[in-house]
Design a protein that fits this description.
Low-confidence stretches: 1-42
Number of strands: 9
Order of helices and strands: EEEEHEEHEHHHHHEEH
Shape: globular
Structural class: alpha+beta
Helix content: 40-55%
Distance between the termini: 32 Å
Largest sheet: 7 strands, mixed
Mean pLDDT: 84
Amino acid sequence: MKKPLIIGAIVSVVIAIIVVSALNFDSTDTNTENTGTDSSVSPLSFSSLITSDTPLKGDPSAPITLIEFGDFQCPNCGRFARDTSPQIEASYIESGQVSMAFKHFTVVGPDSKTAAMASQCANDQGMFWEFHDELYNNQGHENSGWASKDNIKQIASNMGLDKQSFDSCLDSNKYKSLVDSDLALAKQIEFTGTPSFLMLKNDGSKPQALTGAYPFATFEKMFDDSLN
C-alpha cells in the first residue's frame, strides 16, 4: 500500500476507527482482509490492553502508551524497529513521557505466529525486547523460512536464553491463545496493515490510531500534541 492511512478515534471508552487522511509515504503495508467485525473496542484503556503477558518498555505510569501491533516477518515493522523506535525511546521513553507495548498482528504467514509465540517465550526470561531487536536486525524475506521453529530456537540459543525452557515453551504452543487474541483484537479494531499503532493517554481520553511505517516526526507530533 503506497498511501498508509492515519486513522483517528475519539469516544469516551470505546474507539471507532475512521479514515481522516492519506499521506504519501514510501510504505508497503501488509494488508489483511476485513472480516466485518465490529469496529468498536470497549473498553480501550491501559488496564484492559496491557496485561501481565504484554511486553512493555518504559514507565507503566507514563502519560502516554504507544501500542504497536506488529509482525516479525513484516518489512515495514522491521524498518520501524530499526529506524524509528530507537528515536522514540531516546526522546520520550527514557524521559518517562511515553511507554511502549507490543501486540502481535500475525498476518504474513505461518512463521509469523511461530516468531510471535517465541518472543513471548523470550519474555518469560525477561528478554522480549532483546529478542525483538535480534529478529528485526536479522530479518529475512517474507515466508523464506528464516523464522522457522528450528531457526528461531537457534537464534534464542545464540542469545544465551535458557535452551530447555525456551524450547519447551515454544514446542508446547504456550502462547498460541495470546497471539490469536492479539490478532483478533487488531481485526476488531479494523487495522488494515502492519505495523499499526494505538496511542493511549493514561486518563483514557482521545485514543488515536495510526497505520503505516511512518518516520519519527509523525510520532513526535502525535506525542507533543497529546502531552501539551
